[in-house]
């Protein structure tokens, strides 16, 4: 039973586990970055997906996409 809980915790969709290489590879693909850059981001801001996205410049701290990603011309 405890293995099931551990596996479930690792699959938490809001956290990036650096101790599981398959998860690192998967998250790197999802976030369109290298595994090394992903590790650096997690070490810098923690393993919360939103915080890592902000650190990588994929979203603003308020959750908005950067203007370039929105396709708007100023």
Short description:
This protein has 74 residues and is mainly alpha-helical. The protein has helices spanning 2-10, 21-30, 35-45, 49-55, 67-70. The radius of gyration is 14 Å and the shape is globular.
Provide structural commentary:
The protein is an all-alpha fold and 74 residues long. The protein has one domain (2-64). It is 55% helix and 0% strand. It is built from 5 helices and no strands. The protein has helices at residues 2-10, 21-30, 35-45, 49-55, 67-70. α2 (21-30) crosses α3. The mean pLDDT is 81. This is DUF3606 domain-containing protein. InterPro entries: DUF3606.
What distinguishing features does this structure have?
mainly alpha; DUF3606; 74 residues; 5 helices; 55% helix
Uncertain stretches: none
What does the average pLDDT come to? 81
Count of structural domains: 1
Beta-strand content: under 5%
Radius of gyration over C-alpha positions, nearest whole angstrom: 14 Å
Query: Distance N terminus to C terminus?
Result: 55 Å
Largest sheet: none
């Amino acid at each position: 039973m405890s293995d099931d809980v551990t596996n479930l915790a690792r699959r938490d969709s809001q956290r990036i586990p650096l101790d599981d290489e398959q998860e690192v590879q998967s998250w790197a693909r999802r976030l369109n970055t290298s595994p090394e850059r992903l590790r650096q981001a997690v070490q810098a801001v923690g393993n919360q997906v939103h915080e890592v996205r902000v650190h990588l410049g994929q979203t603003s701290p308020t959750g908005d996409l950067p203007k370039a990603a929105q396709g708007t011309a100023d």
